C-alpha cells in the first residue's frame, strides 16, 4: 500500500534567525529554509540549512537543488519506512546532503501523519519515551554559567577545544571539571584542529579528568587509528562520517562513539542506517543537530528516540536561537519528553519566514 502525492503542494520558506551567541564560524544569524509538503489535509515539515564551515553546499546551491529535485519525486510513495528509503535513495542520490535531509524529513513527517503516527513511532516500533540532552558550553561561559547548567539538571556537557593554545585548552577543561564536579559527563570536540602529536599530548594532559570522549581530534583522517590506539581518551567520529558516506563503519571500528548529524550525513534514512550499523559494532550513538531551527531539531529528536540510543543527544544548539521558524518553541531541557515535543502541532512563525517558492 502506498500514498498518492500527485496533488501535493511544496512550499519553500527562507529564514534568517538571530542567535544568542555566535556560531562556531563566527556568524550571528542562522540562515536556511523550511520545506513543507501538503497533501490530503496533512503537512510534513523539513529543513534545509547548510552550515557554513561544515556543509559542502551553500544555501543558494541547496535551494536550486531543492527546486529541481521536487519535480523529480514520484507521485506514488510506499508507506513503509524501509521501502520509502529505497525509493528516495535512488531519486536523491546526487542531491546535496542538506537537501536530502530536508526532503526526507518532510516526506517522513507527512507519511507519519498520513498513517496516524508520530514520526518516531513511524520510523520504529518501540521508540524511547524520553531523550537526554547534553548542554553545549559557550566558549565565554564563566563559572556561574557552568553552575547554572548543572543546577538546571544537565548531567552531560560538551565543550569545544582546539581554538586556542594547548595550554589554554587544558586549563579550560580543568576549570570546567572543577566547577561541575565529578558526576557530570564531559565531552570534548576538537573539530580536526590538531596534528597527531598535539592531540595525543592534549589527551594525556586531561586523562585524569575522566573525559567521555574526544571528537575528531586530528586534521589528517589517516591519523585517527593511531590516536585511538594510543590515546587514554576514547575517540568519537563526526565529520569523518560525512566525508566518507560510502565507507562501512567497520573500517573505523577503533572509534568508540559516532556523532550523527543527519543534515550532514544526507537524510533521515541513511542516518538511521548508520546508527544501526554502529550499534551492531558496539559503538555508542550520539545524535546531534547542526544549529538547526525547531523543524530540524524535532527531526533529530525523532531519530534519537527511534534508534533507542540512550546517549545524551546534541540538541542544545537550539538554545542558541533567539527566534524560531515554528510556534510554539520546542520544550527542550536536560530530559525531553518525546511525545510532548513530537506530538505538538506546529504552525509557521510568519515573522521569521520569507516565501521562497511553491511547487
UniProtKB/TrEMBL annotation:
This is o-succinylbenzoate synthase. The keyword Protein biosynthesis does not apply. Transmembrane segments: none annotated. Keywords: Lyase, Magnesium, Menaquinone biosynthesis, Metal-binding. Mg(2+) binds at residues 189, 215, 238. CDD domains: OSBS. Gene3D superfamilies: Enolase-like C-terminal domain, Enolase-like, N-terminal domain. Converts 2-succinyl-6-hydroxy-2,4-cyclohexadiene-1-carboxylate (SHCHC) to 2-succinylbenzoate (OSB). The active site is at residues 160, 261. It comes from the Bacteria. Its cofactor is a divalent metal cation. It catalyses: (1R,6R)-6-hydroxy-2-succinyl-cyclohexa-2,4-diene-1-carboxylate = 2-succinylbenzoate + H2O. It is an enzyme of class 4 (lyase). It comes from Rhodothermus marinus (Rhodothermus obamensis). One of its GO terms (biological process) is menaquinone biosynthetic process. SMART domains: MR_MLE.
Amino acid at each position: 500500500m502506498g500514498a498518492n502525492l500527485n496533488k501535493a503542494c511544496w512550499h519553500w520558506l527562507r529564514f534568517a534567525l538571530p542567535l544568542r551567541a555566535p556560531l562556531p564560524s563566527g556568524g550571528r544569524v542562522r540562515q536556511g529554509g523550511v520545506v513543507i509538503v501538503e497533501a490530503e489535509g496533512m503537512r510534513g515539515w523539513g529543513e534545509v540549512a547548510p552550515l557554513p564551515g561544515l556543509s559542502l553546499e551553500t544555501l543558494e546551491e541547496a535551494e536550486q537543488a531543492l527546486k529541481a529535485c521536487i519535480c523529480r519525486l514520484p507521485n506514488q510513495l510506499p508507506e513503509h519506512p524501509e521501502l520509502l528509503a529505497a525509493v528516495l535513495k535512488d531519486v536523491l542520490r546526487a542531491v546535496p546532503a542538506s537537501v536530502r535531509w530536508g526532503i526526507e524529513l518532510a516526506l517522513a513527517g507527512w507519511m507519519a501523519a498520513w498513517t496516524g503516527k508520530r514520526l518516531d513511532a513511524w520510523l520504529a516500533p518501540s521508540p524511547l519515551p524520553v531523550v537526554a540532552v547534553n548542554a553545549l558550553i559557550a566558549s565565554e561561559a564563566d563559572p556561574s554559567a557552568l553552575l547554572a547548567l548543572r543546577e538546571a539538571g544537565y548531567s552531560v556537557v560538551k565543550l569545544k577545544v582546539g581554538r586556542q593554545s594547548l595550554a589554554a585548552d587544558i586549563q579550560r577543561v580543568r576549570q570546567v571539571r572543577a566547577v561541575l564536579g565529578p558526576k557530570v559527563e564531559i565531552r570534548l570536540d576538537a573539530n580536526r584542529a590538531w596534528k597527531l602529536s598535539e592531540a595525543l599530548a592534549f589527551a594525556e594532559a586531561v586523562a585524569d579528568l575522566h573525559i567521555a570522549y574526544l571528537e575528531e581530534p586530528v586534521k589528517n583522517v589517516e591519523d585517527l587509528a593511531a590516536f585511538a590506539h594510543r590515546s587514554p581518551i576514547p575517540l568519537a567520529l563526526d565529520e569523518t562520517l560525512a566525508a566518507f558516506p560510502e565507507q562501512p563503519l567497520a573500517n573505523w571500528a577503533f572509534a568508540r562513539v559516532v556523532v550523527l548529524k543527519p543534515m550532514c550525513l544526507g537524510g533521515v534514512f541513511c542516518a538511521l542506517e548508520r546508527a544501526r550499523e554502529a550499534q551492531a559494532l558496539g559503538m555508542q550513538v550520539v545524535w546531534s543537530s547542526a544549529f538547526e531551527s525547531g523543524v530540524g531539531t524535532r527531526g533529530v529528536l525523532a531519530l534519537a528516540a527511534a534508534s533507542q540510543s540512550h546517549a545524551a543527544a546534541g540538541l542544545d544548539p537550539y538554545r542558541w536561537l533567539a527566534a524560531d521558524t515554528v510556534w510554539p518553541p520546542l520544550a527542550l531541557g536536560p530530559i525531553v519528553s518525546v511525545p510532548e515535543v513530537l506530538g505538538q502541532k506546529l504552525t509557521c512563525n510568519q515573522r521569521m519566514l520569507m516565501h521562497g517558492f511553491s511547487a
